[in-house]
Design a protein that fits this description.
Elements: H1 2-17, H2 24-40, H3 52-63, H4 76-88, H5 99-114, H6 117-128, E1 132-135, E2 140-142, E3 148-156, H7 157-161, E4 167-174, E5 179-181
Antiparallel strand pairs: 1-3, 2-3, 3-4, 4-5
Helix pairs in contact: 2-5, 3-5
């Protein structure tokens, strides 16, 4: 009788302890959780702060294409750039760097590696044709739904070669392949 109970209990316990394979969403969720935990370990920074964390903040902003000096001093320029980043990522634009802003900076760095400007231009050319030239500031932005996109001005190369401006319009190019005219 004891053997029968063990035969039922052991597989049941093994199933309960075995990790469930749920695909990439678990990996993404774990990655996002790791980013958020890292963000929570850094101090809140504001105008007047001076430290290596401010230097890290400034370098992170520079890495994701924001124009800021890297001197370790959180002055007016850094505050304005932080506000700009916060607006671009649908955060409260208070110019204070707390856990949400740190996490958005970290996530933006990861997403930029996964969805490069080169990828965006390739998607845009696939949609609009190879005679199109794209220009933008290289920032990876977030729309109101939290979807990442690059904002590009599209121009016609043939028109440019003939001395014209060749502007066609502005486009948001999303990671999922959408090219949306603005």
């Amino acid at each position: 009788m004891l053997k029968k109970k063990l035969l039922v209990i052991i597989p049941t316990v093994a199933l309960m302890l075995a990790p469930l394979g749920a695909g990439p969403s678990i990996t993404h969720a774990a990655s996002k959780e790791k980013i958020e935990k890292k963000a929570e370990t850094r101090p809140t920074l504001r105008k007047g702060s001076r430290s290596s964390y401010v230097r890290d903040l400034q370098q992170s902003l520079k890495d994701v294409k924001y124009n800021v000096g890297v001197d370790g001093i959180f002055g007016t320029q850094t505050q304005n750039v932080v506000r700009e980043f916060q607006v671009d990522h649908n955060l409260a634009s208070d110019g204070i760097v707390g856990p949400l802003t740190w996490a958005a900076l970290d996530e933006n760095k990861v997403e930029r590696r996964q969805f490069t400007e080169k990828d965006a231009v390739a998607l845009g050319k696939k949609k609009l044709g190879n005679k199109i030239v794209f220009s933008g500031d290289g920032r990876l932005l977030k729309d109101g739904k939290g979807k990442s996109y690059y904002n590009y001005k599209a121009a016609n190369k043939d028109w440019i070669d003939q001395g014209g401006t060749g502007t066609i319009g502005w486009f948001h190019i999303y990671k999922d392949g959408r090219v949306v005219e603005q």
